[in-house]
Amino acid sequence: MNLIDRYVIEVGKHLPLVKGRKDIEKELRSTLEDMLEDHAQKAGRAADETMEIELLKEYGAPEKVAATYNPQPYLIGPRMYPFFLMVLKIVTAVITIVLLVLTGVKIATMSPMAGPEFAKVIGDGLAGIISAVIAAFGNIVLVFAILERFVPAAEFKMDEEKEWDPASLKKEPEPDEVKAWESILAIVFTFIALSIFNYNPQWIGIYTVSGDKWNIIPILTESFFHWLPWINIGWIAEIVLNGILLRTGRWNLATRVFSIGIKIFQVVIGLFLLTGPSILAVTPESLLASGIFDADAAQILGTMAQNGVRGLIGLIIFITMIEVIKASYKLITQNTSTRA
Fold it and tell me: What is the rounded CA–CA span in Å between residue 108 and residue 129?
């Protein structure tokens, strides 16, 4: 093995893990061999090891050469940074507002507190907000770091970066075009849902305080967690679908069929949740046991909560079925018109 072969191998070790690595190595080897041949012709003698050393020294260290094939070694590069900031602001604002409201509800439903107790509640609320924001930030960074490496750069341009064309005023909206920000938001919020329901389910509950002791009323039953692996499959499928849409930039037959399949799968899971044991642990008995409500209030609120959740699941199933019917009809009519 000559020095050029060793040099190419060394450069390859520092190349990013991309599909075209072998092509880069092949191109580099060919370039170096051509340059060596030119050097030999100019020197009027056969190429030897000394000439190879001079050539490789001139070409540069393997690490620097490899870096030229990866000119943007960013975790989140400039092309996606505006989208990253937009999503981060939206998610952070939503989480902060929701948790502030929950903290306010806790304070309003608790018995009068002394100064230290009130400060503790506020401190715990702020700590919860900071913890949730940090977790969301980590999920968002992970999503965008993945998108940075697998989604074409052309898919990420803010509107002000695009050259305006007056002819665009005449154009009808492209029905198959994918809006990148919608897919990104879907991926981010799905990642957050996966994180919370699978790794932080203790966040999902009604928090109360009795004296100096915090209590939690879980709002999800074992029946929900029994179906959680199947719910996860639906969420992961949605992440995959939105990742494909980001990469292609357009809907096509395969992605539309995939989307319909995901919705049908989610409807089936929803029917199991609707017809099976309740997924909501908030019952008249649990509310009464919390000591916050009397028997009548616990009965009314518990019954409303149970009926409300089943009604919400039924509504989601109905809306999803409407979407499936509309998507299927559109798919059939488009294919029919294309064949015609």
Answer: 18
